[in-house]
Amino acid sequence: MALFCLRIPTACTSETLEPVFGELERRKTVVYVHPNPSPDAVAHSLGLPDNLLDFPTDTNRAVAQMHYTNRFARTPNVKYIFSHAGGSIPYLAARFAIIDEMGFITGREQPGLIFFHRLRCGLLEGPETSTKY
């Protein structure tokens, strides 16, 4: 299953997609998550390629959205693979844990560092080249 990052805020919060994520959980599916170029013209104003800033930022936003809406906690049997080494997430994992410990975001079902050990961040193009964090 492939999931594109720009759709994640809708996918994480939409009750209509709960049956889809429930089925992914039941089947213990591998979900490959890939970023999209930003549709915002301002994001392209510097003339830089999408994979320099937009892709890592889109991936970071997707992981944060999935973590703080408890999507990862509610789908413990789904394996998520994030392209491009997971954006900056490997470097931000400790910050997620700090925010979780401080309790800034309520309703968390799973602390940051516990869920980060489940993430796979693809360094090249597929799961066979992924690094587990």
Architecture overview:
This protein is an alpha/beta fold. It has one domain: Metal-dependent hydrolases (TIM Barrel, Alpha-Beta Barrel). The protein contains 6 helices and 5 strands. It has helices spanning 8-13, 18-26, 54-68, 71-74, 89-102, 112-116, and strands at 2-4, 30-34, 79-82, 120-122, 130-132. It has a 5-stranded mixed sheet with strand order 1-2-3-4-5, with no helix packed on it. A hairpin with a 7-residue loop joins strand 4 (120-122) and strand 5 (130-132). The longest helix is centred in the middle third of the chain and has 15 residues, at 54-68. The two termini are 21 Å apart.
Top keywords for this entry?
single chain, 133 residues, alpha/beta, TIM Barrel, five-stranded mixed sheet, 6 helices, 40% helix, globular, disordered C terminus
Summarize the structure.
It contains 6 helices and 5 strands. It is of the alpha/beta class and 133 residues long.
The rough form would be described as: globular
Please name the CATH architecture: Alpha-Beta Barrel
Unreliable stretches (pLDDT < 50, length at least 5) are 123-133
Taken as a percent bin, the fraction of beta residues is 5-15%
Structural class: alpha/beta
For the secondary structure, the number of strands is 5
What's the N-to-C terminus distance? Answer: 21 Å
How many separate helices? 6
Order of helices and strands: EHHEHHEHHEE
Biggest β-sheet strands, sense, barrel = 5 strands, mixed
Spatial order of strands in the largest sheet: 1-2-3-4-5
Tell me the Rg in angstroms. Answer: 15 Å
Q: Helicity range of the residues?
A: 25-40%
